[in-house]
Specification:
By secondary structure, the protein is α+β, with helices and mostly antiparallel strands. The chain is 36% helix and 29% strand. Strands 1, 2, 3, 4, 5 and 6 form a six-stranded antiparallel sheet that branches. The longest helix has 19 residues.
C-alpha cells in the first residue's frame, strides 16, 4: 500500500560554489546514494517544468536540484545523511506535506542541522494532526 503521507523534499545544492559541470556531477553522484537512505521512497531530478523561478536547466532537468519522497518518520535520517555528505556547506531544503503546506530550511552547520530537524519534525507532527 502506498503511503500518501510521504513528504516531498527538494534538495538544493546550488550554494556549494561549484561550476555547472561539477554541480551536475555532484547531483548525479548523490542520486543513487539518496535512493538508498532509509525512509526515502523515491528520489529523482527536478523536471524543468517544475523549476523554481530563476533556476537554470539542462536536458529537461534543473541544475543542482533533487527531489525525494520521504517517509516522515525518517526525515531526521535524511537530514543527517545530507549533513554527513556536505558538512559545513549550505544546503537548502524545501519540505511539502501531503496537505500542501511547505517549510523551507537552510543548513550549514551542526547547530543549524539540529534546529532544522526540530522544525521539520514539528512541521510534520502538525501535518499528521490535520
Amino acid at each position: 500500500m502506498v503511503n500518501t503521507y510521504n513528504v516531498q523534499v527538494t534538495i538544493s545544492l546550488t550554494e556549494l560554489g561549484l561550476d555547472d559541470e561539477d554541480l551536475q556531477r555532484k547531483v548525479q553522484n548523490l542520486l543513487p546514494q539518496l535512493k538508498k537512505v532509509d525512509g526515502v521512497e523515491d528520489a529523482g531530478l527536478v523536471a524543468e517544468e517544475n523549476a523554481p523561478q530563476g533556476t537554470r536547466s539542462i536536458s529537461g532537468y534543473v541544475w543542482g536540484l533533487l527531489k525525494a519522497q520521504v517517509n516522515p518518520a525518517h526525515i531526521k535520517t535524511l537530514f543527517k545523511f545530507l549533513s554527513d555528505r556536505f558538512g559545513n556547506k549550505r544546503l537548502k531544503l524545501d519540505l511539502e506535506a501531503a496537505d500542501g503546506r511547505k517549510l523551507h530550511v537552510e543548513v550549514s552547520n551542526a547547530q543549524e542541522l539540529e534546529l532544522a530537524i526540530q522544525k521539520a519534525q514539528d512541521f510534520l507532527n502538525n501535518t499528521s494532526n490535520s
